[in-house]
Amino acid sequence: xxxxxxxxxxxxxxxxxxxxxxxxxxxxxxxxxxxxxxxxxxxxxxxxxxxxxxxxxxxxxxxxxxxxxxxxxxxxxxxxxxxxxxxxxxxxxxxxxxxxxxxxxxx
Length: 107
Prior knowledge:
- The protein has a 3-stranded mixed beta sheet, sandwiched between helices.
- It has one domain.
- The protein has 3 helices and 3 strands, in the order E-H-E-H-H-E.
- By secondary structure, it is of the alpha+beta class.
């Protein structure tokens, strides 16, 4: 699926906003995120533990808003999105936003 022979450019960013998509096992050190990067995705945004749906929705919305600015890297967009949740009293608990990590190329 990630290696389409008709596709010239690799997938730049694959977002896996479901639960534990960066948790590895004996088959894949970084779980589905690691598999995606090895299969050709340049980078993957994934989670390390079960995530709250509402907080994840807020985080992803902010992440994409930040990423719309071409001068903002993927890593900086994630950091800004996480900080926005940290600064909100309803979502300041790191359990709600710190699960997400960027695997692969973070630029």
